[in-house]
Amino acid sequence: MLVQQYTLSPNTPYSTLYYMARSARPGPAVMIVAGIHGNETASIQAANKLVRMIGKDQLLIHKGSLMIVPIVNKKAYRQRIRGVPDLNRTFPRKAGQAAKHPLSAALFEAAKRYRPSWYLDLHEANGLSQRNAKVLGQTLITNPGSPAVPAARKVIKTINRSIANHSHYFNLRLHELPGSSRTAAARILGARAVTIETGWSLPFSTRVQYQIDIVRRFLSEAELMKG
What we know:
Layout: E1 3-8, E2 16-22, E3 29-34, H1 41-55, E4 65-69, H2 74-79, H3 102-114, E5 118-125, E6 139-142, H4 149-161, E7 171-174, H5 181-189, E8 192-199, H6 204-221
Parallel strand pairs: 3-4, 3-5, 5-8, 6-7
Antiparallel strand pairs: 1-2, 2-4, 6-8
Helix pairs in contact: 1-6, 3-5, 4-6
């Protein structure tokens, strides 16, 4: 499949690449972002690998379209830091409100133009949620009452069946985070928005594979690709 490359916020210090893949058949629009935090490298690797997989027809888009922004915050990524300020607190909190950072503003304007029905935000976090309910490592997060909840529960059930070590299991968290890209996409765009959090303590290759496997399952739930 042809994957087209574009530039978000061109000719600025925040310039970064994003990619579009479109099926000939009409269908849902799905948006995937990674690298909002520059030190969450497995999620970035997973997003870049997804782009390559689509380009090599290793992941087939059955209908609709897919937008992937693999490294939102390139400056933070180059330094391998979360980012200052934390970009995931600078997105609009309600319709008509401006983002608090040029980069989050550019990303959200792109999202508003694209109008995704699904929005997946790839992240990483401390801990393993199966061992400690207070940590976010190995979780899917969506807003309470979100229409994404049934799909998220189904994805967790399916992915956990494939995980031999029960301490690596994923769990669902229902939590609004005003200022985050996920909550902005849900509140303002009406997207089924989910954050995917792998646990930093796991091997890098394992985290990358979990991210890819979960994204593929959500693409199937969105009917973008066949199950």
